[in-house]
Design goal:
single chain; 4-stranded antiparallel sheet; 466 residues; 13 helices; binds FE2/S2 (inorganic) cluster; 5-stranded mixed sheet; Naphthalene 1,2-dioxygenase Alpha Subunit, Chain A, domain 1; globular; 2 domains; binds fe (ii) ion; alpha+beta; 25% helix; Rieske Iron-sulfur Protein
Length: 466
């Protein structure tokens, strides 16, 4: 087999960029951007998923060094509201202070180390101050030390220098981010093109209408990787093929931190040739629970499924948000899966549709279990009060999304298909005698990109640039 040449591993039919040429409204530069990245074809060692040693290295050299997304600013909107974020063996406490700022601290008492707050499955809670339940050392919401019982016994402590150490914190798009070691580049620099690209879609104007936290029996990276390629659609989600341009997808690696897949919808998959445009529309409506009207007998003359569904969604979402999207929203922005990843584990969808945002984390400090969070971010009419953010629904490993309320049956089925693979991937990796896996040159380039960046983090020496 000839070695792959840069840019040659592509489906030969219409690309996502070709589909953009048929848009009737101006296409934003964010969608025109493409990187055409080839990062090599070497196999990948399975050790990074299976060994405890790798997990410990990630705890040391990955999680503290990145910007981690924690919660929505609106979830801790009142003074005293807090959020607890557990990562590996450690925990971060984020609080809304009296003067409406947000602060983050290592979630540990400076006396004998008890975890200061626990937020249960949701991570959320409320408190007038930060008092340790063990012996009662007390800090105010700003983290200033306020005293301890029998303080005469701590004459050796300088109470003026006994504040909780603040962690580096910043916000973007309504999300609170923390960088634990304080050495990452500024958040906006870290987010790179995400800042520019998302300006148009204004995630800060959305609220969280659904939040599912699903436990999966696999390494957290395997779960993440199942959601950054559309290559698996043909085998895992065949019901999507009538309206999903899986092999027409575009994959971009913009920087070490940001990558993206755009999978066009409302186009028939190259794997499902013979599907009519009407069948394409019908299947889309079925999966989204909107096919109650029965089969669509005929599309207006000359209209494609993409055009039909695009215009339909522009109208639906305009009504939903009470904002006329028709002058500027492209079909891509109301139909397609436009999925960004911010290294290492935060993945917001983009566009004007109700967009999910994913987050992947090791579960209970395990390298063999993880949680995947599925958060549905919704726009709302600007004339109306912001609806409250949904609280977390915890879904144990053995519960399917079909059994979980609040998620459309057709979409729950898609996630359950993914979740049925993941424990089998983790298990299968143990049986691979070669100790390595193979990756597609283009459609799995984001996985290769992720691992190359992860290795940079894990191998960076003290003070070295990542
Ligand atoms: S450990 Fe917190 S007050 Fe003693
Ligand atoms: Fe999937």
């Amino acid at each position: 087999m000839d070695k792959i040449k840069h840019g040659s591993a592509r489906y030969k039919g219409p690309s996502y960029q070709d589909l953009l040429n048929w848009e009737t409204r101006p296409v934003p530069p964010a969608l025109r951007a493409t990187t055409d990245t080839y990062l090599g074809s070497e196999p990948l060692s399975t050790d990074c998923y299976l060994t405890r040693e790798q997990h410990e290295r990630e705890k040391e050299n990955l999680w503290p060094c990145v910007w981690q997304s924690l919660c929505r600013e609106t979830e801790i909107s009142e003074p005293g509201a807090f959020f607890v974020h557990d990562i590996g063996a450690t925990s971060v406490l984020v609080v809304r202070t009296k003067d409406n700022a947000i602060k983050a601290f290592p979630n540990a008492c400076l006396h004998r180390g008890r975890q200061l707050k626990s937020g249960g499955d949701s991570g959320l809670g409320n408190s007038v101050d930060i008092t340790c339940p063990f012996h009662g050392f007390r800090w105010n919401l700003e983290g200033h030390f306020e005293g301890a019982p029998c303080q005469w016994d701590f004459a050796h402590l300088d109470e003026k220098n006994f504040d909780l150490p603040a962690l580096r914190l910043d916000t973007w798009g309504g999300w609170v981010f923390v960088n634990i070691d304080g050495k990452a580049p500024p958040l906006r620099e870290y987010l790179g093109v995400v800042v520019d690209h998302f300006q148009r879609w204004a995630p800060e104007k959305t609220y969280k209408s659904l939040h599912i936290k699903k436990v999966i029996r696999c390494n957290w990276k395997l779960a993440h990787e199942a959601f950054i390629e559309s290559y698996h659609t043909v085998a895992t989600h065949p019901q999507l093929l009538p309206y999903t341009g899986d092999s027409n997808s575009q994959y971009d690696c913009f920087s070490n931190i940001v990558s993206r897949t755009i999978t066009p919808m409302g186009v028939v998959s190259p794997h499902a040739s013979g599907t009519t445009e009407e069948q394409s529309v019908h299947q889309w409506l079925t999966v989204y629970g909107m096919a109650a009207g029965g089969e669509l007998s005929e599309l207006p003359a000359g209209m494609s499924a993409r055009e039909y569904l695009g215009e339909m969604n522009i109208q639906r979402f305009s009504e939903m948000y009470q904002q006329d999207l028709s002058p500027f929203a492209t079909h891509s922005e109301v139909l397609d899966a436009i999925l960004y990843s911010v290294f290492p584990n935060f993945a917001p969808w983009a566009g004007y549709r109700p967009n999910v945002t994913y987050r992947f984390l090791p579960y209970n400090d395990s390298h063999e279990m993880c949680t995947m969070e599925i958060m549905l971010m919704m726009r709302f009419p600007e004339s109306e009060a912001r609806p409250p953010d949904a609280s977390v629904q915890f879904v144990p490993a053995d519960q399917t999304l079909a059994e979980t309320p609040g998620i459309e049956a057709g979409l729950a089925a898609v996630f359950d298909q993914d979740f049925s693979n993941l424990p089998m991937v983790h298990k299968g990796l143990h049986s691979l005698q070669s100790g390595q896996i193979e990756l597609a040159n283009y459609q799995e380039v984001r996985i290769r990109h992720f691992h190359q960046v992860l290795d940079k983090y894990l191998n960076a020496g003290e003070g070295e640039e990542r």
